[in-house]
Write a structure and sequence with these properties.
Order of helices and strands: HHEHHEHEHEHEHEHEEHHHEHEEEH
Number of strands: 12
CATH class of the largest domain: Alpha Beta
Shape: globular
Number of helices: 14
Largest sheet: 7 strands, mixed
Strand order of the largest sheet: 2-8-7-6-5-3-4
Structural class: alpha/beta
Helix content: 40-55%
Distance between the termini: 47 Å
CATH superfamily of the largest domain: Type I PLP-dependent aspartate aminotransferase-like (Major domain)
Number of domains: 2
CATH topology of the largest domain: Aspartate Aminotransferase, domain 2
CATH architecture of the largest domain: 3-Layer(aba) Sandwich
Bound molecules: pyridoxal-5'-phosphate
Length: 393
């Protein structure tokens, strides 16, 4: 069979691959501890689910305006004003089928062959392939040696006359790093000086620990208003990964192009999910505020269990809900030479599901999600410790 050149270099999502392998094992009666999925171990709040039921019962079940219902776009503008001191109008907002889809619509509108897009490794695993789907080339700037914070020198040396955009993600999946104001200012200066676009993936903006603070880059550097696209979704903040609603906020001209891509591919996001998201965006933060202490307990419990091993290195996450563990000192034992082999070993021999670091551009690492239940976080971390201990014995 012959397929198009668009799909030739595209890799499947490693997260979904391990997700499927776990499901397969569970189907065969094997008990596996899943620390793979990037989603809260919580139900969608009742008032949000009720809003969806009400939408169905009141006949809000037809196509909506392609860029999303006006009320939801207005509410997103109000949220951005109240929380980030940013002024946008509904024409600056596109509602899509999840944050991923919002990002793709924007990237597709901006990039094509001959363009390059800078991303910082370790990166969210979909970025490189999404960039490739547009025909552009992902350029990877490694941040591992500088504790996951890009330096001005490393960014500037990766910029060429083909560079179109930079994608940032703070709080970051997989590292949990949260950029401070000075890092964002430095990136803003480079974006401005080189007339680039900045795509700011802020999907974990409300999942912060200790005294970490989230800043949207435009609120720090207002000169970025015409060059930045803010990407967000209801998936993580409101336990709504299955509802598939995300949004992009940026210059009206660009948003209109991204809406055009959407109109010719998926028309609009689900009407029912949009009404549920309206209830979500209009709520206060009490749901996520009640989840943060639980996540903190899980993070700290996971770190306690993992501290039994001397050779696991990581930076304590300040946001998102992942631990990104350097485990390469366990490689080269029992034919385990990379993160994928280690992930397969942990899954097959110790019944714990994690995601190999290769998916994030960092093969010395593995990622665990501590958004799972406390019981699974504790059990899974112990299984990882047992598995690694067995390798070193
Ligand atoms: C950094 C980042 N961006 C985007 C997404 C996609 O989110 P959504 O479920 O809203 O498409 C995820 C999901 O894991 C993510 O971690």
């Amino acid at each position: 069979m012959r397929f198009s050149e668009h799909i030739d270099n595209i890799k499947p999502s490693e997260t979904f691959k391990f997700f499927a392998l776990i499901k397969e094992k569970q189907k065969n009666g094997i008990e596996v501890t899943p620390l793979v999925a990037g989603e809260l171990d919580e139900e969608t709040p009742v008032h949000i689910a009720d809003a969806a039921i009400k939408a169905i019962q009141s006949g809000k079940t037809k196509y909506t305006i392609n860029s999303g219902i006006l009320e939801l776009r207005e509410s997103i503008c109000k949220k951005l004003k109240a929380e980030n001191d940013l002024s946008f109008k509904p024409e600056n907002v596109l509602i899509s089928n999840g944050g991923k889809h919002a990002l793709f619509n924007c990237l597709y509108s901006l990039c094509g062959h001959n363009d390059e897009v800078l991303i910082f490794a370790p990166y969210y695993s979909s970025y490189p392939d999404m960039i490739k789907l547009t025909g552009a080339t992902p350029i990877i700037v490694n941040t591992i040696k500088t504790d996951y914070i890009p330096t001005a020198e490393s960014i500037k040396s990766a910029i060429t006359n083909k560079t179109k955009a930079i994608i940032i993600n703070s709080p970051c999946n997989p590292t949990g790093i949260v950029y401070d104001k000075s890092t964002l200012e430095m990136i803003a200066d480079i974006v401005h000086e080189n007339s680039l676009w900045l795509l700011s993936d802020e999907i974990y903006e409300k999942i912060l620990f200790d005294d970490a603070q989230h800043f949207s880059p435009v609120s720090i550097s207002p000169e970025l208003y015409n060059k930045t696209i803010i990407l967000n979704s209801v998936s993580k903040t409101y336990a709504m990964t299955g509802w598939r609603i995300g949004y992009a906020v940026g210059p009206a001209e660009l948003i209109a192009k991204a809406a055009l891509v959407q109109s010719q591919t998926t028309s609009n996001a689900s009407s029912i999910s949009q009404y549920a998201s309206l209830a979500a965006i209009n709520s206060d933060d009490s749901f996520i505020d009640s989840v943060i202490p639980k996540l903190l307990t899980k993070r700290d419990r996971a770190m306690k269990i993992l501290s039994r091993m001397d050779n696991i290195e990581y930076i304590k996450p300040a946001g998102a809900f992942y631990l990104f563990l350097k485990v390469s000192s366990y490689y080269k034992k029992d034919k385990i030479t990379n993160s994928t082999a280690l992930a397969m070993y942990l899954l097959n021999n110790h019944n714990v599901g994690i995601v190999p670091g290769s998916a994030f551009g960092a093969d010395d690492y593995i990622r665990i999600s501590f958004a799972a239940s406390l019981e699974n976080v504790e059990k899974g971390c112990q299984q990882i410790v047992d598995g690694l201990n067995q390798l070193s014995s």
